[in-house]
Every structure is written in C-alpha cells, then in structure tokens.
Amino acid sequence: MIEMGIVVGLAILVLFFKSSWRWRIWMLSHPVMFDIAVFTFLTAIHWGTYSGVMVAAVGALFCSICFSIGRWAFGYIQNGMYITGKVVNVWNHIQPKS
User: Fold this and answer.
1) CA–CA separation, 64 and 22 (whole Å)
2) How far is the C-alpha of 80 from the C-alpha of 91, rounded, in Å?
3) With contact defined as beta carbons under 8 Å apart, do 28 and 71 qualify?
4) Element (H or E) spanning 71, and its range?
5) Which residues contact 19 (CB under 8 A, 6 or more apart)?
6) Do 25 and 76 touch, CB atoms closer than 8 A?
7) Which spans in 2-49 are helix H?
8) Strand 81-84 relative to strand 75-78: parallel, antiparallel, unpaired?
C-alpha cells in the first residue's frame, strides 16, 4: 500500500511539473486548498476498499510532503509578495519578457 501511494503521489507530481510556472506558483501559494483537493480527488477515485483508501491517504501525504519541499525550494506568493525559494528563483521565469 505504501508503494502504491507513492506511485499515485508521483503521478500527481508529474502533472504538477507539466504545468506552467504560473500554475506551479499558484498551487504552491495555496497549500491547504491544494492538499484538500488532492486528498478528496484521490479518496474519490480509490473509494470502495480499505487498501484503496489507504493508497489515497499515503498518496495525499506524499504530495503534501513534496509540496512543502517545493515551497521551500521554489518559493511562493504570500499577500501579493513573492517569497523566494532556496534553490530556484522562479520570479525570473514568470516575468514577461520586455
């Protein structure tokens, strides 16, 4: 169950990395809303068995941990101000070219 939960979490992270920088920062800036949406979605599609719900819970937990690491690494927007990440300065990627 733990392995399948990690695989499900990795699938959601692949979708995260396929999105644009603007959507990534938006998702990182709204962690509680994103965690609730991921958990609700995973529980809905895995509903019916105990192991399915456990896979959904582990997948949501894995996504939450990875998004916390993403907030630390890439940064996020809080109250209209960009909080810089420790690894990548995303602001250079999302600013329009002049």
Assistant:
1) 19
2) 13
3) yes
4) helix 50-74
5) 27
6) yes
7) 2-18, 21-29, 31-45
8) antiparallel
